[in-house]
Amino acid sequence: MIIGDNVEIEFRPDAEIAKFEDSGINILVEFWMGGIDDGEHRVGGDLLLMIWQALKANDIVIPFLQRVVKVTSDSVARIGNLKVGTEKAD
After folding, report:
1. Each residue's pLDDT tens digit, 32-56
2. What's the pTM value of the predicted model, to 2 decimals?
3. Could you state, in order of their start, the residue ranges of all structural domains in the chain?
4. Which one of 19, 25, 43, 55 has the fewest beta carbons within 10 angstroms of its own beta carbon?
């Protein structure tokens, strides 16, 4: 990726944070390229790798959201009393 003051402003790469999610950040990335190559030299994968390396180099970790479900004996008893097609226990 070519960057620097000698690159015209419309050709410089740009990134903006679009949204913070529960287990990630949506980033809009804009860059200019002379041609598209979906083969061995594809740009998308290289760009994602550069972003990943920048996050790691700056000790930025995005935790994966985990939820804990606690099952108690009372809830098991209520579930056992459910009838098919209903939402409430007897």
Report:
1. 766 666 566 566 777 778 888 998 9
2. 0.48
3. 9-80
4. 19
